[in-house]
Amino acid sequence: MKKILISVFIGLLCWNVQAQSQFYDTGTPTTDTATTMVMIGANFSTLFPFGMMRDTFKLNLNLGGLLMVKTKTNWTFDLNFNYFFASDVRHPNTVLSNLVDENGIILDGNGLQSTIYMEGRFWHIGAGFGKVIPFDRWRNSGLWLHCDFGYFEHKIRIKEPDDAVPQILGDYLKGYDQKSGGFSMSQFVGYLFMRKNRVGNFYIGIEVYEMWTKPLRNYIFNVGHTNNIKPAFSCMVGGKLGWFIPLYEKKRVTDLYRF
Description:
The protein is mainly β. The chain has one domain: Porin (Beta Barrel). The chain has two helices and twelve strands. The longest helix is centred in the first third of the chain and has 23 residues. 28% of the residues are buried.
C-alpha cells in the first residue's frame, strides 16, 4: 500500500507540472489568484485499524488541530496534533486474564462482580508538507496531497468506576494498559476548498496512518518482560473532514504572460 500511495503522489505532482504549463500557455494575460496564507484548523476522522493494532482495537474516532502555512506556489507546511478515542477493545478478558476467575468475571475488593470499562486512547504529533493542485483559475482550492512524519502512542484506558479493584489501581494499572509508542507516517488525498471570502473553508478526503510501535512498559502482566520485543507495524485507514480559518494572508494578484 505504501508503494502505491507514493507512486500516486509522484504521478499527481507530475500531472500538476504539466497543468501549470498549460495554464500559462493561453496567449492572453491570466490572473494568478494563489496567495500565501497562515491558517489554523481542526479536523475529525473515523479510522479502521489494521496490523498489530487490529488485534486489540476496533474502529476509533479522531479530533485534531493544525497550524499550516500555504505558499503562493501552493505548497503547504504544517504542525499537527491528533487525539484518538472511542475505540473498543476486542478481547477485554485477555487484557486482564490473570484477574478473571473460572466463571469469566473479575471480583472487586468486596467479593462482588466488578464492571470494568476499557477503551483505546491514542495520540499523534507530527510535521507535514503537501501540495494543492488547482482545477481552475481560483488557485487556492484543489486536490490536496499531504504527507506527515511524527510520533504515535497508544494504550488501553482501563477504568472501574468505584475504584474497588485494587489490582488495577496506581502503578499496577501500568502492567495492563499495554502502552506503546514509536515512529509514524501518514498520507492524505482529498479536496481542499477555500472560498474567495475566506468563510466556509474545508477539506475532505482519505487518510492513511502507518505506525511502528513497541511497548513502553518494561513488564506487561499477560505478556511478561518486553525488553526484547521489536517494533510492530500497524496502520489505520479512514475518512477525514477538516475546517480551517486564515490568520494571515499576503494578497498578491499577478497577471501572467507567456512570450
